[in-house]
Write a structure and sequence with these properties.
The complex is a heterodimer of chains A (about 90) and B (about 425).
Chain A: H1 8-18, H2 39-42, H3 46-60, H4 66-69, H5 75-88
Chain B: E1 24-33, E2 36-37, H1 39-48, E3 53-55, E4 68-70, H2 91-106, E5 119-124, H3 130-143, H4 152-155, H5 160-169, E6 176-178, H6 184-197, E7 202-209, H7 214-221, E8 251-259, H8 260-265, E9 273-282, H9 294-305, E10 314-316, H10 323-337, E11 343-345, H11 348-351, H12 358-372, E12 374-375, E13 391-392, E14 398-399, E15 404-411, E16 415-422
Parallel strand pairs in B: 5-6, 5-7, 10-11, 10-15, 11-13
Antiparallel strand pairs in B: 1-2, 1-8, 1-9, 3-4, 7-8, 9-16, 12-14, 15-16
């Protein structure tokens, strides 16, 4: 069976929901640079990341290693961790 | 030292060329009360005797012995706060953030242009984030620990209002939170006064509580002193011969306190009064022959302020509306002032009893009475026993020169706190001895 992979919009939506900014992500408005922007610059602290991980677990069944989540620096790193985890699960 | 100066301590010449003046003066007020969101709406409703007591709307109260509460109705946090704060805050914290915003705006303080370590936050808190925690506990038991929001880690917490106000406005000076049930908010203001005297120029102080979810309601009812009457206009009857207990409420108030020298230097556009004295005491164990601590708290606060009882123009009462507590308060009033020797009032029948929010809101009543020369009436008292010997302001607002007021409060399990406020004119030099 083909492994389902998440996309950048999936990750951004989870982050915005976890941070309390609603669940609508406008695909057309996504700046491709956002993937490499630091969580600090985006205003997402470690609690937002933990809440995001919890959300991804409930919605997609992905159990991310908690000790690695708070070391991530940008959305791309989170996307890579998610898809890496999906590939091995 | 910069051009605006920075007072370092009560003994320093803090502001360049000006004598140090560490008196704690109130330069801003913010109110979130069941009978009015905002200082002006609260004050006009209070003078009119308009209450904010209503049947609880947050859950189905069928089967509960008490169903009335002071609710801040029509409050939508999205009208006041950024989206990002909402999933991480309990309603009590949302209300606290709004009250603190109002107080800073009223004081015309822009924290962004002041030094962050020169501004502290001190809040009182009695119940933490009950509503938020109730919902997360629901998830814990129904779905498991992995479904509990990570924000629960601090949203429940007694110090959370201090933390969130500090973060929102970048106030990094000495900050803390104090927990003493209904006395908490006066303790916070008293501690803020102390913080200013130690040299911090500005402290945002106050308290807000809200616990009107089923779990919070159960904790209110556990006191055994919540009124079971069902008429919102008369359920809470402090000092009445047939007093039947209090009505719990939510909300409270924040004050911006500044050192007098810092307020002169800024310069502050308005000064509501001085927090002239503060003390707290603890009751002896039940059954002890030693006296209760309320009167002593007031005596200590008056001594600190250098005020004789005969110079007090108004007492804003604790007004628990439980007969034995009303009797104890009346005893303390007579013990301090003599029978019917001082005017007494309370707005609590209009708002409910607000836990940590109660004391700061009572301070707002006292400060606005000083400002306006008007004492709001205690609206719903029934027949007051002659033996109480108290001059309760009733019926209509009373016009009276109020230069000095005593605000006190009692917290369940023995907390007593008292604060003395008085009119102050910053254009005159400080002549106080302390």
């Amino acid at each position: 069976m083909a492994m389902v992979q998440l996309t950048l919009p999936d990750i951004l939506r989870a982050l915005t929901v976890a941070a309390g900014q609603g669940d609508e992500v406008d695909l057309a408005a996504i700046d491709p640079g956002v993937a490499e922007q630091s969580f600090d610059d985006l205003g997402y602290d470690s609690l937002v990341l933990l809440e995001t991980a919890s959300l991804l677990e409930h919605e997609h069944g992905i159990v991310l290693p908690e000790d690695r989540i708070t070391d991530l620096h940008n959305p791309q790193a989170l996307l890579d961790l998610v898809n890496g985890t999906l590939a091995t699960q | 030292m910069g051009a605006t100066g920075r007072p370092q301590g009560a003994d320093d010449s803090g502001v360049t060329g000006a004598p140090a003046d560490g008196r704690a003066v109130v330069t801003g007020l913010g109110v979130v009360a069941p009978n009015g969101l905002g200082v002006d709406r609260f004050w006009s409703a209070t003078l009119r005797g308009q209450h904010g007591i209503e049947p609880l709307t947050r859950f189905d109260t069928a089967g509960y012995p008490s169903v009335l509460a002071g609710q801040v109705s029509g409050f939508d946090p999205r009208d006041h706060l950024p989206d990002r704060l909402l999933p991480q805050t309990d309603l009590s914290t949302q209300l606290a953030l709004v009250a603190a915003d109002q107080a800073l705006q009223d004081a015309k303080v822009d924290p962004g242009v002041l030094t962050d370590y020169d501004m502290g936050v001190v809040t009182g808190n009695a119940s933490g984030g009950f509503d938020f925690t109730h919902r997360e506990f629901d998830k814990l038991w129904a779905r498991g620990p992995r479904f509990v929001s990570v924000y629960e880690s601090f949203a429940w917490f007694y110090a959370v209002n201090t933390g969130q106000v500090s973060i929102r406005h970048g106030l990094r000076g000495p900050s803390t939170s104090l927990v003493a049930e209904q006395a908490s908010g006066l303790d916070a203001v008293g501690h803020a006064r102390r913080t200013l005297r130690r040299g911090t120029p500005l402290v945002v102080a106050g308290g807000v509580d809200s616990a009107l979810d089923p779990w919070g309601w159960a904790s209110h009812l556990s006191s055994g002193r919540v009124s079971t009457d069902d008429d919102p206009a008369t359920a809470y009857r402090p000092f009445a011969a047939d007093a039947s207990g209090w009505v719990p409420g939510e909300g409270g108030a924040f004050l911006v306190l500044e050192r007098a020298d810092a307020a002169r230097a800024r310069p502050a556009q308005q000064v509501y009064g001085e927090i002239a004295g503060y003390a707290s005491t603890f009751d002896p164990r039940p059954g002890s022959s030693r006296p209760l601590g309320l009167q002593r708290a007031a005596e200590l606060a008056l001594t600190q302020a250098g005020v004789a009882p005969r110079d007090v123009d108004l007492v804003v009462a604790d007004a628990a509306a439980a007969p034995e507590l009303d009797r104890g308060e009346a005893d303390a009033l007579r013990g301090l002032f003599g029978p019917r020797a001082v005017e007494v009032t309370t707005a609590k029948p209009l708002t409910g009893r607000l836990l940590a929010g109660g004391g700061p809101l009572d301070l707002v009543v006292a400060l606005l009475a000083i400002r306006d020369g008007t004492i709001p009436p205690t609206t719903v008292a029934g027949l007051v026993p002659e033996a109480y010997g108290i001059d309760l302001v009733r019926g209509a607002p009373r016009q009276a020169e109020v230069a000095t007021a005593l605000v006190w409060g009692r917290g369940r399990w023995g907390f007593n706190s008292a604060v003395v406020v008085r009119r102050v004119d910053l254009s005159l030099p400080n002549t106080s001895k302390e």
